[in-house]
Design goal:
Blueprint (H helix, E strand, L loop, with lengths): L4 E5 L6 H12 L2 E4 H9 L3 H8 L1 H16 L4 E4 L8 H7 L4 E7 L2 H8 L13 H19 L2 E4 L4 H11 L1
Parallel strand pairs: 1-3, 1-4, 2-3, 4-5
Helix pairs in contact: 1-8, 2-4, 3-4, 4-5
The structure holds shikimate-3-phosphate.
Shikimate-3-phosphate (S3P) binds next to loops.
Length: about 170
């Protein structure tokens, strides 16, 4: 029997990587960023993968990475903003030893945090703000459905980590 994993879920800019890093120090657990895991395997950035092969190909890599990471023991995983909007990935992580934590952040804060960001291929478009808002509202019910625990992630990273530890 291995130790449980903590799977961080939420929209782009919800703080999954920041919280994952801090929580890993607080809890003494390893931290794995799913996007970085894919980038390392493919030797390409997520942006390059989208540009060269398209989103559908990226989603296949993401599903495979989710399967691999769901089998780990005692790690914290930051998923991508799209990962847990696919039921197959939710099912992958619902294998008894993964706790899915939603970092819940209002759309206005997400918009502020993503201002000027060029690393999210889905938002590299002229109607960025509108596309982001629509995607956010479409995804929120899916995240809520996937989550075992929901925390308010508009607070400071330290407070968010404390809230997660309390809720676990
Ligand atoms: C995506 C979010 C990104 C990355 C890819 C697709 C999404 O991760 O996986 O660009 O569909 O929301 P972050 O949430 O870490 O930005």
């Amino acid at each position: 029997m291995g130790r449980n994993n903590i799977i961080l879920c939420g929209f782009m800019g919800s703080g999954k990587s920041t919280i994952g890093n801090l929580l890993s120090k607080k809890m003494g657990m390893a931290f794995i960023d799913l996007d970085k895991y894919i980038e390392k395997k493919e030797q390409k950035t997520v942006t390059q993968i989208f540009e060269e092969h398209g989103e559908a190909y990226f989603r296949q890599l993401e599903k495979q990475a989710a399967k691999e990471l769901s089998q780990k023991n005692g790690v914290i995983v930051a998923t991508g903003g799209g990962t847990l909007t696919f039921q197959e990935n939710v099912d992958t992580f619902r294998n008894g030893k993964n706790k899915i934590v939603l970092l819940d952040v209002p759309v206005e804060i997400v918009a502020q945090r993503l201002q000027g960001d060029t690393t999210r291929p889905l938002l590299n478009r002229s109607d960025k703000e509108q596309a982001m808002t629509e995607l956010y509202h479409r995804r929120l019910p899916l995240y809520r459905n996937a989550a075992d625990i929901i925390v308010d992630a508009s607070n400071s990273p330290l407070k968010v980590c404390m809230d997660i530890m309390d809720a676990l």
